[in-house]
């Protein structure tokens, strides 16, 4: 019988002093002495996430919100909950004293001293923060400072909260925030009641607009460079998950399409892939002065081979290269780290080639014009996705990152999910752009039909926000959201309406579109 066993043989548990409770205490407070101020203010141990939820729901008396300098604080928008690195809330709209309202990040802490404890004072990502909001103020300073030594106002929430903190904690579903918050429901939710068909109509239109918007962007680029270059840069940009998209686009300028064509023309695919990796790695600034003696043999051989190719081909590149500071690994899974994404691009171009990729786009156009049935479109899309997938080859068959532990089998360099995203967010807009340049209205219409039948990609952060805002809960609109055009429509609506009405959801005119639905004056502008 174990030490926690009761007399009846069953397990007895001390709910007040369980091991989990003690571990949580240590993790939350790192064995530091609790300031006396905590105890005199009905202090209870809470996680920072709860404070974020309270800020997000604005669950306090706003009339009692003041900076530690005594200035009143007005919150017009709490901001968007940030799920990646950096401040907790982005684009909050706040006014401090008589100053003009500012749209800036807000950082949340349990204690105000956590600003320094977490190193934000030396981190440029927190430079633009407007407020350091904490549950308890335990720092003698009324302000904190950013990495440029500029002051940032501080706000203490505990004096503005008029409920027992434990009651608030018991009512908030912290694990499912921000999506479980009632503040996610917008005025459009009420307007949509009984108008699901209208919502489908409007969101499909919005999804079409998002696709056309991407095509217009490529069209503008075509005024300055040939189609192959526009295509190459677009594909390279798609290799960088959100934090590194612009860095990959700059990398495409450092290693121009003419160089990639030359490499694929003069060397077999396996050799081309190595040369392109050397060029991408070298130009990125992430692969210099590697201490090969400290690496395992396979990695050392790989690095020496890359170094030799870089030395032989560096002269083919002109202009300045990128630096380590241009890239981020924060909030990025190891399988999507920049060097691995560059290896994926190198293998993709070595296998398909620039001309091969362009021919694939032309073939797609011919197929979807010839076959208009949704089932045929799904098969065409499946074939395209298969072509864009890139298995792990060469050194990357057993590695996630250079020098990392060897695996039995590493995941694909470009998996099915990413290939589908490339197909719908890059290849299809490029095809629509091409149709516009050629004046091919039939191809444009076929591309829109093709998009309308495409399955939904992985759920976007904005989609989660909009599902609550429009449908009222996390599972709302499930049938509607089976198609990617609807998800893209939600994203388009967010940027067109929600992002533009950050001060007041009640002023938004999107509910009017939902009420009209198919009766929208499509040729006559917005409703009055």
The backbone outline, from C-alpha atoms, is: globular
Rg on CA atoms, Å: 27 Å
How is the biggest beta sheet arranged?
7 strands, mixed
Number of helices: 20
**Percentage of residues in strands:** 5-15%
Spell out the helices and strands N to C: HHHEEEEHEEEHHHHHHHHHHHHHHHH
Contiguous runs where pLDDT drops below 50 for at least 5 residues: 1-42, 523-528
Q: Which structural class fits the helix and strand makeup?
A: alpha/beta
Instruction: Provide the residue-averaged pLDDT.
Output: 84
Distance between the first and last residues' Cα: 77 Å
Polypeptide structure, described:
The chain has helices at 19-29, 36-40, 48-57, 114-117, 165-171, 187-192, 196-222, 227-239, 245-254, 257-266, 269-284, 297-313, 338-352, 354-370, 374-388, 416-438, 441-452, 461-471, 484-498, 510-516, and strands spanning 73-77, 80-81, 89-96, 102-111, 131-136, 143-145, 151-156. It contains 20 helices and 7 strands. The protein has 528 residues and is of the alpha/beta class. It has 3 domains: 19-176; 187-199 and 459-519, no CATH class; 200-452, no CATH class. Strands 1, 2, 3, 4, 5, 6 and 7 form a 7-stranded mixed sheet that branches.
Keywords, separated by commas or semicolons:
528 residues, 48% helix, single chain, seven-stranded mixed beta sheet, alpha/beta
Please give a quick description of this structure.
The chain is about 50% helix and about 10% strand. It has about 525 residues and is of the alpha/beta class. The chain folds into 3 domains: about 20-175; about 185-200 and about 460-520, no CATH class; about 200-450, no CATH class.
